[in-house]
């Protein structure tokens, strides 16, 4: 067995040498943190070297993707909450229908029967006023839900009129501020088995305000929505 000789004391690094090596290593690590890691991961470039090397752009892309993913997740959670609320409203109104029919002396229709679709009437025009105007046509399959929003500032007013062709829908009119907390809800009105509606929305806050439609008529329906007023843009499904 070979035993290596112990190093002599004078061959070992001194405390000053160890301290100097530690400081040099820390300086190198700090330099890499400022010039490489922060720009590439967080788009933070205090030394202005990361942008020259193309690392800051990489960090900006990562940050943008993270923000978009968080926004999509929040929007999905909000839409799921609205759908749950719509389902609860539909259930409650379904329970009340027999009582309303009994109070009016009108027997409830058989569950299997469907209303005969009347000839489609012309869609009412939204009242004239300042701002932009849009007409949007939405097609919903049976049980499909669609959300459409107007981006508005607090206090802005938008007038609307919509009509369903050959069927009826349930709807929930509501608004959301930017970065709304999970479970946030601000409603303007709901309806069940409705064929048309018109009125106005006065934005309670900066954000998006509009409708969630659900087709419960058992057939494919088309909704024609006309909007006019003080809103920045209209956010259409998949648009």
Short note summarizing the structure:
The protein is α+β, with helices and mostly antiparallel strands and 239 residues long. The protein contains 3 helices and 9 strands. The protein folds into 2 domains: 16-107; 121-235, Sandwich (Jelly Rolls).
Protein architecture, described:
The chain has 239 residues and is of the alpha+beta class. The chain has two domains: 16-107; 121-235, Jelly Rolls (Sandwich), CATH 2.60.120.380. It is 34% helix and 30% strand. The chain has three helices and nine strands, in the order αααβββββββββ. The chain has helices at residues 15-42, 50-53, 55-104; strands at 132-140, 145-152, 157-165, 169-176, 186-194, 196-202, 207-215, 221-229, 233-235. The strands form two sheets. A five-stranded antiparallel beta sheet has the order 5-4-7-2-9, with helices on one face. A four-stranded antiparallel beta sheet has the order 1-8-3-6, with no helix packed on it. The longest helix has 50 residues, at 55-104. The N and C termini lie far apart (77 Å). The model is unreliable at 112-120 and 123-129 (pLDDT under 50). Keywords: Membrane, Transmembrane. It comes from Falsiroseomonas bella.
Oligomer: single chain
What is the averaged pLDDT score?
Answer: 78
Provide the CATH top-level class of the largest domain: Mainly Beta
What structural class do helix, strand and pairing data support? alpha+beta
Q: Beta-strand percentage?
A: 25-35%
Q: Please, how many domains?
A: 2
Termini gap: 77 Å
Keywords: Membrane, Transmembrane
Region (Disordered): 108-134
Protein name: Transmembrane anchor protein
Biased composition (Low complexity): 114-131
């Amino acid at each position: 067995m070979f035993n290596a000789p112990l190093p002599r004391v004078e061959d070992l690094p001194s405390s000053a040498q160890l301290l100097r090596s530690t400081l040099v290593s820390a300086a190198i690590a700090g330099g890499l943190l400022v010039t490489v890691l922060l720009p590439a991961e967080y788009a933070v470039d205090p030394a202005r070297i990361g942008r020259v090397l193309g690392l800051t752009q990489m960090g900006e892309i990562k940050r943008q993707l993270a923000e978009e993913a968080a926004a999509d997740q929040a929007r999905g959670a909000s839409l799921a909450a609205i759908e749950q609320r719509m389902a609860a409203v539909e259930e409650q109104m379904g329970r009340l229908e027999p009582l309303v029919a009994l109070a009016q002396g009108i027997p409830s229709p058989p569950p299997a029967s469907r209303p005969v679709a009347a000839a489609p009437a012309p869609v009412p025009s939204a009242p004239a006023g300042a701002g932009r105007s849009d007409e949007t046509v939405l097609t919903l399959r049976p049980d499909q839900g669609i959300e459409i929003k107007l981006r508005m500032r607090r206090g802005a007013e938008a007038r609307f009129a919509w009509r369903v062709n050959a069927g009826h829908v349930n709807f929930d009119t509501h608004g959301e501020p930017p970065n709304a907390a999970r479970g946030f809800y601000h409603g303007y009105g709901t309806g069940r088995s409705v064929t048309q509606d018109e009125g106005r929305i006065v934005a309670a806050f900066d954000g998006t305000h509009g409708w969630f439609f659900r087709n419960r008529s058992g057939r494919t329906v088309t909704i024609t929505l006309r909007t006019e007023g003080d809103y920045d843009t209209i956010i259409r499904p998949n648009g």
